[in-house]
Amino acid sequence: MTTQFTSHISNHSIFKNFLSKSTSSTVHPNSQLLAIRDNRDIYYCSNNIVRWCDITKSTKNYQLLQREVNFNGACAGGDVISTVMNSSGTLLGLIGDSYVEVVTLPSKQESKDVFLRNSSFKIDPKGHIKKAIWQSCVANDSMLVLLVDNTIKAYDLTKSLHTPQVEVRLNVEASSISFGSEVSLSGGLTLYVATTTGDIYAIYPFVPGACNLAITREQLDLAIEETELIMQLIHPKFPLSSTLNLAVVRQYEHYMHLKSSLGYTFNQVKEIRGVHTDKLEEFYIVSPFLWSIRRELQGPIAHMNESIDDIFNFGNSAMTFLAGVSTSEHSSTVSYFAQVSPLLMNCLPLRPPQVDKKYAKPKKGFGFVDLQDQAITQQQQELEFHKTELSKLDKLHSDVIEIGGDTGHFGKLDNVRFGLIVDNTVIVIEHPWTDKFAQQPEINSEYLLATIEHSPITSFAYIKDCLTDTGEYLIVITSDNLSIIAIVNNVPPVETVKVEKPKPQEKSQVKQDNPVLDELSQELSALKISPPINVSNDPSECLNQVNQTSINIINTSVQFTSMAIKLQSKIISNLESLKLQAVTVTNIAKKYTEQQKQQQVKQDRIDLLLSKQSKLNEKMKSIQGKLLDNLQTNSPSLPLSEAERTWFKEINSITEKLNTTDWDNLSKQVESIKQQQPKKQDHLKQLELQQRVSKLYTWLKQEDVMIKDIKEKLTNLAATAK
Predict the structure, then answer these.
(1) Which residues contact 442 (CB under 8 A, 6 or more apart)?
(2) In sequence order, which residues have a C-beta less than 8 Å from that of residue 386 and are 6 or more positions away?
(3) Exposure class string for 446-483: b at 16+ Cβ within 10 A, else e
(4) 577 has a pLDDT exceeding 90
(5) pTM recorded for the entire structure
């Protein structure tokens, strides 16, 4: 149905000439050349020209945005591949293959000039740009994050356009990035990274060391609640000096520092967002606590079975919901993830502890304790706990769509739906379940086939008619066509995409046939019953009527008899089937009862072994205690060894000599020792000389053959010289 609004869009000059044959036939797989702000301002890129118009005005003219001239060949083949607008609607990123240009978007434009009064900034990330997104929790909404090759670079436009404020080099083949929920602070600080191997990683926190954040009280209170929940998980399991406890304490200090500076001073800086919408939001500008931040990949925290083409954050709740898509030749798989359990900030490294090799005496018993092994065991427990509890993205569901292609990517439409483009196909995905997921965790996404085009899709966007209030629409632009699809009652009037639910694990199922009486009821309805006969007064005519009636009755009886036979045969076959099923159920019940009995017997044996083991442990502890007590009690009365006796005799003899009162005798002994000293020295020299001579003799004896050979050679040389 064509309305005034759709006709106004279709005939608007902003979309004219986009069918030009001179345009390049090569379309980027993730192309998005259309951006709409507040259902009013339309920004459309054609080659290297950015057009703007106010669709609510009756005029069909458009204006141009001012861009940098001679920027990396932008005017000679450097066309815009995609556009990305920040959540505030103040900045628009123009993404090329290896360059980025950001233009400011004025709130109101009354000038009739050709160009808008805007500014332009250029960024050269030096590499192939795979994806670009905005980080909305940064002040002024000015942080642009780029996935360049296998490096993540973040540029704060208020600080520097040449040096990224954050640069993370990845050791994996990344394919897409996405932030978490914009409603929560932890979601806005978490960057999710998808890879070609199907893994999803996280970087938390993803924020420069020196920057300003735009947050609300509700966001900060929620972040503190999440941190307290992590504390409750860690404190009972690990000592206060553990790495996990220190990390969660630092995270708590960080958020409490933000809370202490939140709105309690007269010169508190605030930021107002949503000036282009009916809902204004007030944010507090705060500086994060300056501690060492480790921007490294955590995980993998989730996994898909195939290579991930794109990931996308959807929903309008504090919980982060992510969608991932992987495509193949005949189908596409859409998986849904939720950040149910909170993440722990990566501010302290979980590395093997540096403990000196030493032993400690146990508090009770005998033996020793290896302190290094004990510390390594605790570290392994922390790593396992961090992996399973504090770095996990829960996978909710996967759907297989029977639409295949080379690649797929997502795009936001509104708060209750988003779009998926697979080659030349646009699919609208509705997710009303995200708002009530906490109370009713059911996933019932609806897939609606919006359009199938014959040429590559360059753009698609959602717009609401605020001019004549006729409803909502989906604008789809290809290289040679413009389609405007009406959304009636929040559902596009198009066919539903066939979705295959993932097959569960093999279970015992009984295939149900169609109802038994379906075929018979059809045959019964097909039977024609003759109407009542009016008996004629003519005997011959009456006889003919009776004859015909008898024939009809016989035919009908035959048909009813055949139907009865069929019904009886079906009933008998179903009865036999039911008997067989009853026997199968009885056998299963018997096996289940036997397995329960066997399990109970095994459980009784396990309980008995556990009780015996506990008794043995108690006996062992008792024996160890007795041995220790006996050793401590009887150690002074143990007999001396022969070496100890000899040692004590020598000590006693020396003591007797030193304790004597005959000092003259001692002095004589000292004099005799002094007189013996020269003799001893001479004797020592003789021994040393003897040893040297013996060594020399041994060496000469070993080298006798060589000496003789040298002597002969010298003799021959002397004879030759004469």
Answers:
(1) 433
(2) 244, 344, 350
(3) ebbbbbebeebbbbbbbbbbebeeebbbbbbbbbbebb
(4) no
(5) 0.66
